[in-house]
Amino acid sequence: MSPVPALSLSKITVTFVAGDAAGKAYTAVDSTTLNVDAGEFVSVVGPTGCGKSTLLNIAAGLLEASAGDVQVLGRPLTGINRDAGYMFQSDALLPWLSAFDNVALGLRYRGIDEAVVRERVEEWLARVGLQAHAGRYPHQLSGGMKKRVALAQMLILDPKILLMDEPFSALDIQTRQLMENELLELWSADRKSVVFITHDLEEAIALSDRVVVLSAGPATRPIGEFTIDLPRPRDVAEIRMTPRFVQLHTEIWHAMKNEVLKGYAQSQHA
Amino acid sequence: MKQVTPKAGRAARPRARLAMYHTLLLGSVFAFWYLMTEPLLWSEEAARNTAFFFGKPIVVLQKTWDWFASGRIYEHLLVTLIETLLAFVIGTVGGLGVGLWLALSPTASALADPYIKAMNAMPRVILAPIFAVWFGLGILSKVALGVTLVFFIVFFNVYQGVKEVSPVVLNNARMLGASSRQLLRTVYVPSAMSWVFSSLHTSVGMAFVGAVVGEYLGSSRGVGYLILQAEGAFDINTVFAGILVLTAFALALDGLVSFAERRLLVWRPAQGETEKL
Question: Which value does ipTM take for this structure?
Answer without folding.
Answer: 0.87
